[in-house]
């Protein structure tokens, strides 16, 4: 009876440890919640990407930010045409930098992206903007040739190469390893059925 109880307790401890480990991995990961590529004529003709991500900033990263160290997040996007007889052909490659900073003097957070900057009183407000990217023009072309043969992928990561050099040497790798997996992007009907969308 006692041996069975000990075995049950051991199994529960293993299960709890696994759950805690999974929670830590989730906390240090960037998760792509949704992403869509669409063709638009305005404001400028081209292909536009919408993406929403979710993540938590580890405590050490928040501490550095609140001390005035800016953080740089990179959104990377690719479209490749699949070829059975050779390696895939790159069609589109684009990247966009988003800068998150904090001013101890004004006690405000600032999000800068594509020449635009917004200030916020709280980190949660700033992160809400950082995690949502809409209307990013990734291509001047509004049509993909043979879209059914193309694969689009996106990922978002914290670029530690933008940190001050002394920090790059001393930071803990796990806390600062904020990145998403490459996520397949959905094509809007305006790309896969351009004639239908024009009607």
UniProtKB/TrEMBL annotation:
Top-level taxon: Bacteria
InterPro entries the UniProt entry points to: DUF4390 (IPR025500)
Any Pfam family matching the protein: DUF4390
The protein's name in its UniProt record: DUF4390 domain-containing protein
């Amino acid at each position: 009876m006692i041996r069975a109880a000990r075995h049950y307790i051991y199994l529960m401890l293993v299960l709890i440890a696994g759950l805690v480990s999974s929670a830590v991995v989730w906390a240090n990961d960037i998760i792509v919640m949704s992403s869509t590529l669409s063709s638009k004529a305005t404001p400028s003709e081209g292909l536009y990407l919408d993406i929403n991500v979710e993540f938590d900033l580890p405590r050490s990263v928040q501490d550095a930010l609140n001390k005035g160290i800016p953080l740089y997040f990179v959104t990377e996007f690719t479209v490749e045409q699949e070829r059975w007889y050779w390696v895939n052909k790159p069609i589109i490659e684009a990247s966009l930098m988003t800068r998150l900073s904090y001013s101890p003097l004004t006690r405000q957070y600032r999000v800068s992206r594509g020449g635009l900057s917004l200030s916020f009183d709280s980190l949660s407000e700033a992160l809400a903007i950082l995690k949502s990217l809409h209307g990013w023009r990734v291509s001047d072309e509004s049509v993909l040739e043979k879209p059914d043969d193309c694969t689009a992928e996106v990922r978002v990561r914290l670029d530690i190469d933008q940190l001050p050099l002394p920090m790059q040497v001393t930071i803990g790798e796990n806390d600062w390893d904020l990145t998403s997996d490459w996520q397949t992007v959905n094509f809007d009907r305006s790309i896969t059925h351009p004639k239908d969308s024009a009607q």
